[in-house]
Amino acid sequence: MRRELASAHTLTRRTARPAAAPGLPASLPTVTRRTAAVTAAALLLLLSHTTPGVTDATWADSEHASSVTMTALTVPAPFFDTCTASSVLVVLSLTPRVVVTWHYPSGTYDGTNARYYNSDSGILGLTLISLGSGVTTTGPVSGTYTSTFQGSLLSGLLGGTGDVGISTTHASGWTSLISSGHASFPLLVGAGTCTITNS
Prior knowledge:
Elements: H1 2-15, H2 30-48, E1 79-90, E2 93-103, E3 114-119, E4 127-129, E5 135-141, E6 144-150, E7 161-168, E8 179-184, E9 190-191, E10 193-197
Antiparallel strand pairs: 1-2, 1-9, 2-6, 3-4, 3-7, 5-6, 7-8, 8-10
């Protein structure tokens, strides 16, 4: 009787199997069940994390930049070659006169691009005057113009000083700096002095 019980106990111990993982058939071998359980746990872990959403970010822009070369417009001032000041008799009247010879240093400019100025209060007081209002211009002769300032434009300057100037105006409206001459006139007929300032 004891042998039979011992044999039955031994048989029970040898045939006992661990409980199957939930959801797995009990008939699978132990190793297979364990592998399946680990795989299921890993799958659940992966599914529990949120998948990142799709973004609309564009890392390569299709737009292209192009460079533009800008060149500043430089309007050249007339260049004074000579400047003379004198007191002369005009119709028996003593009149101051300034004669300037000048040229354009560059560009395609002519006499129509010239603007004229005068002042009896120093170079800072130069004001624009129109051609024919006491100033005349001839030329060019070999690229050189001759401008004469006199008459009522310079009245009252005998024995005193005055300033004349010329600038260049471009078709765009831009105007150059002013080149000028500072004149001193004698009280009587004769020559005075004129100092040139080229811009």
